[in-house]
Structure formats: C-alpha cells, structure tokens
Design brief:
By secondary structure, the protein is α+β, with helices and mostly antiparallel strands. It is built from 4 helices and 13 strands.
C-alpha cells in the first residue's frame, strides 16, 4: 500500500466516495423514504466508523440584532457502523427512513435535503447532498386552502428560530405570513401568521398570530407597544376539515 495513497486519501484525494439514490424526490411529512447508499472505494482500503443520513433545512437565527441563515438539523439517521471498503470496491446499502411530521414544506426560500456522510477516521469525510420536495399533507393543505378562501394571500414562508417558550422538538419552525387582499378581513388586519406543529397524519396544532391594522390614535399606540397582536393556539383533526373554514373565520373575526 503506497504511503502517498494513504496521505492523499487522508485529504480526500483518491478516497472513498458516497452517492445516495432515492426512489423518488417528492414526499409528505410522515412518509417513508426508500433508497440506496452506494459507496465506492478509493485507491486504498478504508475503515468507515459510521454511515449516516441527515435531514436538513436552513432557518433564520438572530444574534446581536442581526439575522443569519444557518443549517438546521431536522433528523439524523444512523444506517450502519464499522465496515471496511476495499480499494475500488463498491457496496450498496439499502435504507428506509421516515420524514418527520414537523419537517418544513418546500416553498419559497425553504429547501430540504438529505445529506449522506461517511465517518472515516483521520480522513476527510465524504458526503453527498440530495434535495427533496416536501409537499403539504392533507391537514396542512386544508389550512392553506382555507386561509386562501378567506381572502388571504401568502406573502412569505420562512423557517425561523423560535423563542424557548414556544419550541417543540426543533429550535425553529416554518412561519407562514399572509396578508388579506380580499374578503371581510381586507383592511382590518396587517397580517396573519400561521405555524404548523403536526402531531400525525390526522392531528395538528396550530399557532396563529393575528396582527390588527392600526385605527385611530389608540390603534397606533397599541401597534407601537405591540399590543395589536393576538396569539392563539388550537388543535385540529382531519375530521374538522369540513368545518375548518367556519372555524377559522370565526376565530380570526373574534380577534380582528
């Protein structure tokens, strides 16, 4: 075994490579992801301590009064431990993982990807990145469609860091900001903010922030003191879909 090959492999030249192949690239939260991790050996035998898949997205984090975009971990899956890949050898490892229910959907600037990594001691760890398209499940689609029917248009959808008191499993959540462009809420609200906290295919918690439009001196003072915002939490079930429009309309009207 050449000393030069060992040195080159330690800095990633002539080292093992990894390529993940997914059966498809469109998923709903909670769905299984099936695929194969293909590892190709380099110029020397290499011991791999760990093979893992990470599900990532980016989110906005604020520090020192500045906003930064950082990589967020949605879930980490360990596939296999401690194998050796021979020089020029090819190994394929099939896998089945599940997209967590709280995975953000692929909309606007929000991207979701699977990153495959090999943990190789004393060497540059090879990795592979595969973007996937996460689409709303039945409950999410029901909420988004209902909000649109009430006259709201989606203005922005970003993943943002949450205050500690609002966090669930992840330190961030996807926030949907809507503006009323038609219907009875036009001119009454500055915006409607919606955050999904899915529990399963059938149940989801919603966090709503209703931001009323300032009217008169009292309204402008309330806006300046951020007293014009109302935060509401509610749970919905798939059985609520037929009455979801009247339920959300009544709730928003109560605080607008």
């Amino acid at each position: 075994m050449s000393l030069f090959n060992k040195v080159f492999a330690s800095i990633g030249i002539g080292s093992a490579t990894v390529d993940t192949k997914l059966e498809k690239d469109v998923f709903v939260p909670g769905e299984e992801v099936r695929g194969i991790v293909q590892i190709k050996g380099g110029k020397i035998d290499q011991h791999i301590d760990d093979i893992y898949l990470n599900l990532h997205t980016n989110y906005i984090k604020e520090s020192d009064d500045k906003k930064h975009i950082v990589k967020g971990d949605i879930e980490r899956f360990r596939l296999i431990q401690a194998i050796t890949i021979g020089a020029n050898e090819t190994k394929e490892i099939p896998f089945v993982i599940r997209v967590p229910f709280d995975t953000p959907i692929s909309i606007g600037r929000t991207k979701v990807w699977v990153e495959t990594g090999l943990d190789i001691k004393n060497a540059v760890d090879p990795s592979d990145k595969d973007y996937i398209n996460v689409v709303p499940n039945q409950l999410m689609k029901g909420v988004l469609d209902t909000v649109a029917e009430l006259g709201f248009r989606l203005r922005e959808a970003d993943c943002e860091e949450l205050p500690y008191r609002k966090r669930r499993r992840l330190p961030f959540a996807q926030e949907f900001e809507f503006v009323a462009v038609s219907g009875s809420f036009r001119g009454k609200l500055d915006e409607l903010e919606v955050i999904f906290f899915p529990q399963s295919d059938e149940q989801m918690d919603l966090a709503l922030q209703i931001d009323r439009k300032a009217r008169g001196l009292g309204g402008f003072l309330a806006e300046a003191l951020e007293m014009d915002e109302t935060n509401i939490s509610l749970s919905i079930h798939s059985k609520d879909l037929p009455i979801l429009k009247s339920k959300l309309e009544s709730l928003i009207r109560q605080y607008s």
